[in-house]
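Table S2 (text version). Query chain:
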Amino acid sequence: MDWVLRTWGLITIVVSIGGFFCREAIKAKFSKMVNTDAEAVKHRYQQDLEALKHRFQLELEAEKIKFLQEIDESRLRLEVRKALALHLATQRLESFQKLHNLTNEVSTLLPAVASIGGAGRNLEHTKAYNTLSEYKISLQQAAIHLPLELNSQMIALASDCYTLQDKSRSNVLTDEDPLTANIVKKGGLIQNELRELCRRIVRDVDVNLNAS
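Corresponding structure-token output:
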């Protein structure tokens, strides 16, 4: 009976020891599995983080390039608008300056020619007619840029000049002739307005260039 008890006790001890080592082995295996999974999760997280950073960097670089392109395009459009505005302003300025000079010529040359007698009369009339024709053409070309009232005044001046020319073909007129005096007066007023338009164009160009 004693040996049975001793044998049972020994078996119990062996089973206990085996159970302990089995539990430790299971714990060690479970711990290794957990650590392996944690490392794998950490590795995947690191990979995902690097991929996300790389994609973000690419998108940021693409946005930067797009932004710089938009700035360059905006600057280019601004330069084109400035160049176009300057070109148009230059055209208007040259047109007004030409009209100013022609207005001065027709409002002084035609009255002078009307008072000429003698052999050179026909030649001077031809020169005056050519100047008046050039004035009329220049006025038509610049009409779109002229204030309506000034354009009407210049048309009226041209009409008076043609009337004076027809009248002076058969008569020598003096400076005291009402039509002659009216042409000189109108010509002076028109020249003043054209000079003011030219100054305004120059001021506007300076303001636009300085503002840009």
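Notes on Table S2: Residues 111 and 180 are 6 Å apart (CA to CA). The longest helix spans residues 2-114.
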